[in-house]
Each structure stands twice: as structure tokens, then as C-alpha cells.
Amino acid sequence: MNYVVYAIPFFLLAILLELAFGLAKRRNTYRLNDSVSSLLLGTLSQARRFVTLGVGGYIYYLFTQHFSLPLMDASHWFTWVLAMVVYDFCYYWLHRMGHERSILWAAHVAHHQSEDYNLSTALRQTSTGFLLGWVFFIPMYVLGVPAEVVISVGSLNLIYQFWVHTEHIPKLGWYEWFFVTPSNHRVHHAQNDRYMDRNYGGLFILWDRLFGTFQEELDEEPVVFGIRGPLKSFNPLKALTHIYSDMLRDSWRTAHWRDKVKVWFARTGWRPEDVSVLYPRTKANLDRFQRYDPQVPRLVSLYAFYQLLALSAVLAYLQFNDLSYREGVAGWAILLATAATTAMWLEARSVARLMKWDLLRLGAILLLLVWPVGGVLEQGRLLAFAVYALVSFVFVGLIVHEPGARNPAPAS
Ligand SMILES: [Zn+2]
Ligand SMILES: [Zn+2]
Description:
Keywords: Lipid metabolism, Membrane, Oxidoreductase, Transmembrane, Transmembrane helix
Protein name: Sterol desaturase family protein
Helix content: 55-70%
Pfam families: FA_hydroxylase
Bound molecules: zinc ion
Organism: Candidatus Marimicrobium litorale
Membrane topology: Multi-pass membrane protein
Number of domains: 2
Shape: globular
Mean pLDDT: 91
Oligomer: single chain
């Protein structure tokens, strides 16, 4: 069973509690723009399966049919304990290669772009991990771990990782030795040279100690969160594709055929020599590091938050209703378009242009609402859309009339 869906309300409650705790202690670790951007990516990640369906399930089926030991007994506790440990071992290598190889980093990078570190960062997840991630779990299929056990321990592993995304919990004594904790996972999210490419475990940190990738969090080296080539955007489309497009560009530009292929399989950061000379990339200076933080009027932030709530409602609707494939794809497209425009509002762009994008998006949503059911209008959905669109119009109307909203401060 995939427990993640049921954990979502508790995740959101925990985010509110962490926010309140931070405010009370005068050590708030949240910025609305960064958190909304993370949660938009989390929403898209959850909705991805409506488009790709059961790719992973089909691969599992092929393996267990042809290359697997007899299926283990799902009712025996030993199966679960073994699956828990083997899953985390496979996860360690997926995660490590996810950082060390460009093609896998392209998928995993989405989890690391946030320049804050809080529980919303935990929900910042990729939508393209399904493409290659399954390769690393083949040992589980070959061992004959039943499908429901693989899915259950996978979702429990992900849920475990939620709580470690916080700055408020210090080191935890002996526990640090065996398990992934807030402290050792903070190191994993750092862009400091000293901390780079360390602490890959999901549940057990023992793998890192065993394979030489462990690094302790040090008092003299405060963590700077984020990635070395900063995204400087809240746009989920860009977040999910920027490394793929970097690789595509490098592969296109290089004159050498070998390098055109090597770009895709090389170590993360490797670039063809001719391309890196002609198109150098500069790394941010961490001593003078400034987080991407375009300033927008409070009403725009509220509008973005409203959009996030609407997206959560759409996701819940998709998850708890038995919908056709076309309806699922339409729902995902609505989420993607809305997430992308919401991010644009937070990037302090021209209000006149944003209004046009929003109108275009609302028109497209209306078409998508009609499309899945072959032209027959579904009244409940249309009514919900009408209320949603009306509130959106009120928001945009108020924003346009707010002094200073038309010419927002440029992005830093
Ligand atoms: Zn990572
Ligand atoms: Zn993380």
C-alpha cells in the first residue's frame, strides 16, 4: 500500500507546526515563495502517475515472471524486515548515482533547489525519477519481494525522510550513528564544498559510513542550502527540466561525436572541453551567497497561496475518484499549467503579462474540463471551476488596483 497519500494531511499539519514554532522562537525558516514552489513540485510529483500509469508495476511484473526467486511470504515479519533493509540499500545507490551521474541528477535535482531547509523542502520531489529509478530496485524484484511489500516499504522509507528536513532539531547522540537524522541530512542538502556529495542514506546512515560517503555537520561550517548552479526561478517546469536542457545544449554544441554521447553518462558537472571554453558557467560565491528572493506585494503572495490550495483540492479529487485515463491526464495538465503560472506570479513579472497568461490558462482549463467526457459538461466540476475562477478574478482585480503592484521589485 502506498501510505504517502494518507500521510499528506499530517505533512501539512507538521509544516504549520514547524512554521509556528519557528515564529515563536524568532527563528523562522520559511519563505512563502520558496515553500509554495516546493509544494507545487510535490503536487506535480504525486500527480505524475496519472500520466505514466504503472510503468514501474509492469517492469516488476516482467522481472517476477522471468528472473525471480519464488515470491516471499508477505504475511511473515521477516519479509518486511528484509525488504526494509534491502530497499534502503538500493535507495542508497540510486541516491548516490542520482548525485554522481548527470542523467540521474537531472531527475533528482528538483529535491535540492530550495535554498531554505524546512519540512516543505521534503515534499519538493521530482516528476521524472520513474524513468530510470526502477533499475536500482531490480535486486528486490529478483529476491522475490512481493509487489505490495515493495510499494509499502518504499512509501514508508519516503515518509521517514520527511521529518529530517528541519533546522530546528539538533544532533541526536547515538542515533546519529545508525540512522538518517536532521543533522546529517542538512549536510546532504548543502552546497558547501566540504559537504558536497555526502550522506545519501534514506533510513540508515550506516551505508554512508560503510561506503565512505559520510560527513558530520560541523559547527565551524554553517550549511548553505541549495545547488551550485542556482535555479533562480520558482517555475516547476524549469525545475524539472533544466539539467536535461543543459545536457541537450552541451551535446548539440560540442564538435566531437564521442562527447555528444558522453554528456549523458558522464559524472555530474563534466562538460565537453570545447563547450566549456566557449560557454563557461560560473559558480556562485558562497561567501556572498544571496538566496533567490524576488519581492512581491502581499496580495500576490496570498494569490499564490490560494492557487496552491486550489491545486491541492484538484490533486485530492484526482486521487480519491475513480477517473478515466483522459481525465487523469487532463487533471495533470491543469495542475502543471496552474503551477507554472503561480510560480510566475511569485517571480515578480509584469502584472499585465501575467494577467494574459492567467486568462489563457483559465480558458485552457475550461477546454480540458470539457475534453475528457467527449463534450458533455460535468456540472459539479464546472460549478467548482466557476467559483474558483471568480475568486481568481477578484484577486487579480485587487492586485491591479494595489499601488506598486504593477511595477514590482526586480528579482535579485
Ligand atoms: Zn539528494
Ligand atoms: Zn532531502
